[in-house]
Amino acid sequence: MRFPATITVNGVAFPIEVEPGTTLLYAVRDEIGLTGAKEGCDDSECGACMMLLDGQPVNACSYLALQADGREVTTVEGLAAPDGLSPLQHAFLEYGGVQCGFCTPGMLISATALLETNPSPTEDEVRIALSGNLCRCTGYDGLVKAVLTVAAGAGS
Q1: Cα 112-32-29 angle, rounded to 5 deg
Q2: 3-state helix, strand, coil in the chain (%, to 5)
Q3: Which of 13, 121, 138, 140 has a C-alpha 20 to 30 A away from that of 132?
Q4: Where is 50: in which H helix or E strand?
């Protein structure tokens, strides 16, 4: 049995029908067609599936799509600036934060959430904010430098 929901993703309302156990990750990937967020662990451990829900980062692999009915979701696709990549996305590239790329969507979402609530974080605050995201390529130093550069205004 499928249930109707309307989820606003990156500013566009999507009426969908999903089964009760469908996660937000799979509703966005399969029903809406935005595949930037990844399933890494399916257990809220790796952060590859991270999305913003009403501005707060959530592990979309453990959040039900029906819980997002009527709410605003931002995916990695929604972070780009109208004229191309956002300053944070550019900084990730510049500092080698994008290696295999699997963790990148979740890292960008977590970093975006941090900078929206704390535009001038310390290095420790950046590391804490990214601690829910695993990078198997161990690109953490580049990711932290990228976030700090954008926070300092050098990446905008």
Answers
A1: 65
A2: 40, 20, 40
A3: 13
A4: strand 50-53
What digits encode the pLDDT tens for the residues 16-31?
Answer: 999 999 999 999 999 9
- Residue 60, class by beta-carbon neighbours within 10 Å (0-12 exposed, 13-18 middle, 19+ buried)? buried
Instruction: Tell me: pLDDT of 3 over 90.
Output: yes
Mean of pLDDT values over 58-73: 97
Distance CA 11, CA 96 (A): 30
Residue 150: CB atoms within 10 Å: 22
Which residues are within 8 A (CB) of 117 and not within 5 positions of it... i.e. 6 or more apart? none
Rounded to an integer, what distance in angstroms lies between the CA atom of residue 99 and that of residue 139?
Answer: 7
* Residue 152 pLDDT greater than 90, yes or no: yes
CB-CB neighbours of 102 under 10 Å:
17
Strand order across the beta sheet in which 72-74 lies: 12-18, 3-9, 72-74, 50-53, 56-59
